[in-house]
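ESCALATION

Customer reports they have been waiting on this structure for their group meeting. Please prioritize. Original submission:
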Amino acid sequence: MPEPTVIAATGTVVAADYFPSYAVVGLLAVVGVLFVAVAFGAGRLLRPVVPTPEKLLTYECGVDPVGEGWAHTQVRYYVYAFLYVIFAVDSVFLFPWATVFAAPGYGAATLVEMFVFLGFLAVGLLYAYKKGVLTWT
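Update from on-call: job pushed to the front of the queue and completed.
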């Protein structure tokens, strides 16, 4: 059974009552750091180290590198992916809104807030369209 909380003359809880909780968290953090350090140290001691030119060669997917290391990549693919992520993350906010909108007493306020939110999304989409970002060339 835990001890009762000691309250100072001002009516506040004494900070010393929280020390055991923080000590447990600190102990777990130290144990976690030690566990990772021991695992990395054991891996470093037990692994075989035989460097050869083939092992030091950079490759991707098992294919030997041929030619220059620089490759031109079209930026428009990243722009499409970035726009998708933006609108997908924003659409995630529609689901909690729908649950709050169904609750009594929140109808008009949440409806106005959601139309403001959708307005910002529409302005962003219109801006991307006007800049020519959405044209696939």
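Sent to customer with the following note: The mean pLDDT is 79.
Escalation resolved.
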